[in-house]
Design a protein that fits this description.
Radius of gyration: 20 Å
Structural class: mainly alpha
Number of strands: 4
CATH architecture: Up-down Bundle
Order of helices and strands: HHHHHHHHHHHHHHHHHHHEEEE
Distance between the termini: 10 Å
Number of helices: 19
CATH superfamily: MFS general substrate transporter like domains
CATH topology: Growth Hormone, Chain: A
Largest sheet: 2 strands, antiparallel
Strand content: under 5%
Helix content: over 70%
Length: about 425
């Protein structure tokens, strides 16, 4: 596969860029996940209901989800590296200020600010990777980033959970926000690629109207929604689920919750590496990515269904299965978007896809909180997530015809129409 078809410059993405993007994804999810970890403490301190706590957990997505659309546009028209740095400054300050919150309203405002800052993370990162990484690197690079994302909740649940038990939640938010800013120094000193990709030299991507006519884009959006709803249910409610449903203390919950996300992180690295190896021996991107997507979504639906009925030990095993399936899915979802869109459209494509996916982030915490308040258990909430995962199987298996680069310049009856190129 040549560089033009892969969408990279031919030289490949540098290890330093991959490492720093992985670290940024880690920081991103530590900062956004801290409120869920502190949820039992904050709920008691401010006398919040489950519905109010769910509202706080979802408020992040009120700005994060719609922010994906302008973030994709900005990342394609300005320096994506500096756009990412600016976003990190905003979300770090929001994290630190949360430690000074005086009540529900201030927490709500700061969660919206956090979402605004974090909205640039993935459109900017995908622009960078689409321009600099070649196809046979996408599994490794996205697997590393996915591991960083999943390690955020793992380390956050363990370290922040224990630190909150010892020092209180306010000190942890202050320290996490200030520490996040340290990432800026190595990032701003990272060398630029010596060979510029075509999409870096000129904004020659497709018009947005052509992008929005792509069946593959809308299939990817629907499939990602199925993944995201399940992921954010687990991310937002896992601490409360383990503490309130299965009677664990905060200190007991921390290592178990961390282990689930750690399993997901390790799985992401291994499946990302395996997918690159499979591509190098001749498999098509379509076969490699769809195998991961369909098996991961089916496994996720099965494990979520098990969580609805299992007793404590079985529930922990089912949650571990969820972590494994999430680790299989995430690198494949990200790599598929970069492959389909190409360097000229990756940021906008992901902005649209992540906007719709994060409707799950908005709805999952609230719906789960309401369902738990009304039924007294998490069973129905897990079954809703399982149904959406099955919808994701249909989306990735049927609506997305083939995972191959879209030829944005193919003309049909004088109208620009996205057409998939054949790799094999």
């Amino acid at each position: 596969m040549n560089a033009a078809r892969s969408g990279g410059s031919g030289a490949g993405v540098s290890a330093r860029v991959v490492a720093l993007l992985t670290l940024a994804a880690f920081i991103n999810y530590v900062d956004r996940g801290n409120l869920a970890i502190a949820g039992p403490l904050i709920r008691d301190q401010f006398a919040l209901s489950n519905a109010q706590l769910g509202l706080l957990l979802s408020a992040f997505f009120w700005s994060y989800a719609p922010g994906q659309l302008p973030a994709g546009w900005v990342a394609e028209r300005f320096d994506a590296r500096r756009v990412l740095a600016a976003g990190l400054i905003v979300w770090s300050l929001a994290t630190a200020l949360t430690g000074l919150a005086s009540g529900f309203t201030m927490l709500l405002v700061l969660r919206v600010m956090l979402g605004l800052g974090e909205s640039v993370m993935y459109p900017a990162s995908f622009k960078i990777l689409a321009c600099e990484a070649v196809e046979v690197e996408r599994g490794r690079t996205n697997g590393c980033m996915a591991a960083g994302q999943q390690s955020g909740p793992a380390v956050g649940t363990l370290a922040c959970g224990l630190l909150m038990a010892w020092f209180g939640w306010r000190m942890v938010f202050l320290a996490a926000g200030c520490a996040s800013l340290l990432w800026l120094w190595p990032w701003l000193r990272t060398p630029r690629p010596t060979v510029r990709a075509p999409a870096q030299a000129a904004p020659d991507g497709p018009p947005t109207r052509a992008l929005l006519r792509s069946r593959e884009l809308w299939g990817s959006c629907l499939g990602n929604l199925g993944y995201a709803y399940a992921f954010y249910l687990v991310l937002s409610w896992l601490p409360v689920y383990l503490v309130k449903t299965h009677g664990l203390t905060l200190a007991q919950m921390a290592p178990l919750g961390a282990g689930i996300f750690a399993l997901s992180a390790v799985t992401a690295v291994l499946t990302g590496w395996a997918s690159d190896r499979w591509l190098k021996v001749g498999a098509s991107s379509n076969r490699v990515r769809k195998t991961a997507l369909l098996s991961g979504m089916l496994g996720l639906a099965a494990c979520l269904s098990a969580c609805a009925f299992a007793r404590p030990l079985g529930a922990l095993a089912a949650m571990a299965g969820c972590g494994l399936c999430l680790g299989v899915l995430l690198p494949a979802i990200w790599a598929s978007a970069q492959t389909l869109a190409g360097p000229g459209a990756a940021a906008r494509w992901w902005g649209v896809q992540n906007f719709f996916a994060n409707l799950g982030g908005i709805s999952a915490p609230v719906i789960t909180g309401v369902v738990v308040d009304r039924t007294g258990s998490f069973g129905s909430a897990f079954l809703i997530a399982a149904a959406l995962a099955l919808l994701g199987v249909f989306a990735f298996g049927v609506l997305v015809r083939r995972i191959e680069p879209v030829d944005w310049h193919t003309m049909d009856s004088g109208r620009l129409v996205p057409v998939l190129t054949r790799e094999s």
